[in-house]
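Homework help thread (please don't just give me the answer)

Our assignment gives two proteins as sequence + structure token strings and asks us to describe the second one. The first is just a warm-up. Here they are:
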Amino acid sequence: MRGFLVGFALLVVLSLTILSLRRGGLRRQLRFAARRFRLALALIAVYLVGSGVIRVAFPEGRAADFGPPVLAVALLAVYVVFGQDPAVPVDPPARTD
């Protein structure tokens, strides 16, 4: 039990350290992580509903066998596209008057 708690504490400290070193600071990175988590929860709900519909509509056959994995890959692609960090604006060039 002690090893689990030490490992969990180390994981939290390492995560916070890495997030705080990234551009924008810890607060911005945690906001991005929260956005990705909400997106993942929404996609999980879509997968559960979609796989349930597939199982009810097609109890046997290829759709029942290959439908849920195809749905999972499609939702993974959606997560990869929409889960990216927004573009960081480039610093404006310094004025030389």
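The one we have to describe:
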Amino acid sequence: MANLDFPSSPTLNDTFLGTNNINYQWDGEKWKMYTDPSTAQSSLWARDAGNVDVYPANAGDNINARNGGGTITATLNADGSIDFITLNIEGLPSLP
């Protein structure tokens, strides 16, 4: 992903749309991710474990975390709950 080129002299509450399609707002000290309260869907961060990209997801989406083999190991559900994979402990090797 390319570096973001933020404006060099922002004023309080200026907004900036980055090349990553994320909106940012200047809070007087730093650029923070910004969600326009008048929009129906807010922009959230999601990460694709396959290629380590970070990208926006829409509010209401489930967000999956995958292990190195591509298997979903956890899901952050749109309702705020989290699902984890179940593990069959009887299938694990015995301790020495």
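TA reply:
I won't write it for you, but here's a hint about the kind of observation we're looking for: The CA atoms of residues 38 and 61 lie 19 Å apart.
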